[in-house]
Write a structure and sequence with these properties.
172 residues; alpha/beta; five-stranded mixed β-sheet; globular
Length: 172
């Protein structure tokens, strides 16, 4: 029944919710995906003591492509201090060659991972663009729909300060 409703909504051009079932504070769904350079990423390890913005996108999704400049700017401005990273999980159906071509065409300069149906399901992904903010393996916020730079900045603002004790743990 849910699948039928999703297909009907998509055929009518209606937006769908993303991150269905994900709540702030809960453990982020586990994944192990390689980026285009061969590095393996996991939300548990790669969000330790920092904000990780996991962006789900596809090259056929025009709103997703409109977000790329904002994501690049966020990575450039905040990714240098090791407290923030953007990763893009591409949901292309054409596999690695199509993902690589899209990353080059749109000059994506943050890590791009090749997604899977299992990852999409575990995150409750039902539409694009969608993103999830994660720190220390926990969901902070689910972002649904197209965002401009100012929207991302507003979404991130409450989370820039490290949780108490993170500085001490980061030095250990």
């Amino acid at each position: 029944m849910l699948k039928t409703l999703m297909i009907a909504a998509l055929s009518l051009g209606l937006p769908l919710a993303a991150g269905a079932g994900l709540s702030p504070g809960q453990k982020a769904p586990h994944f192990e995906l390689k980026d285009l350079n061969g590095k393996t990423w996991t939300p548990e390890r790669d969000s330790k003591h920092k904000l990780l913005l996991v962006d789900f996108w596809a090259s056929w999704c025009v709103p997703c492509l409109k977000e790329i400049p904002a994501l690049k700017q966020l990575q450039a401005e905040h990714g240098q201090d090791q407290r923030f990273s953007v990763i893009g999980i591409s949901m292309e159906k054409g596999g690695r060659p199509q993902v690589e071509a899209a990353a080059v065409k749109y000059d994506v300069d943050y890590p791009v991972l090749i997604g899977s149906a299992a990852v999409a399901t575990s995150f409750g992904l039902q539409g694009f663009p969608s993103a999830v903010l994660i720190r220390d393996g926990k969901v902070l916020k689910v972002l649904v729909g197209e965002r401009k730079l100012k929207d991302f900045e507003a979404d991130l603002a409450p989370f820039w300060e490290a949780p108490k004790g993170s500085e001490r743990k980061a030095q250990d």
